[in-house]
Specification:
Blueprint lengths: L15 H8 L32 H7 L3 H8 L5 H7 L3 H33 L1
Length: 122
């Protein structure tokens, strides 16, 4: 998918200490800070015309996930904290692959839904 030299690929066998320094992490701070985007819409969602929009909460309510809305406001563990809790390098690599695959599916779904939304207006 991404063009990366074989020498630069992460295998999951790297030591935390080797990777932590360049990432600004330490033993006391094992979870990085959230990325701050200069633009309020870094993915460009406002560029595409939206015909039928719902908030995340409304969508979750419609599909019957009321508990997800309640849990999200009650302090769920962030993805970074979950990843930091993984000790086994193999588990970290598997988690990264699963998160990447889920993000690709979500992005593809969003693109298809936006395209269908644009086509339905005409």
């Amino acid at each position: 998918m991404l063009d990366v030299d074989e020498d630069e690929k992460l295998t999951g066998e790297e030591e935390f200490e080797l990777l932590a320094g360049p990432l600004g992490l330490s033993e006391r701070r094992i979870v990085p800070e959230a990325v701050q985007f200069p633009d309020s819409d870094p993915l460009g969602a406002s560029v595409a015309m939206v015909t039928a929009t719902n908030s995340m909460e409304e969508t979750l309510l419609q599909i019957g996930c009321q508990t997800s809305v309640d849990k999200s406001s009650s302090g769920r563990v962030t993805l970074g904290e979950q990843a930091a809790a993984l000790q086994n390098p193999h588990d970290r690599v598997m988690a990264l692959r699963r998160v990447t695959a889920a993000a690709q599916v979500l992005l593809a779904r969003t693109m298809v839904m936006r395209a269908l939304s644009l086509l339905s207006v005409r």
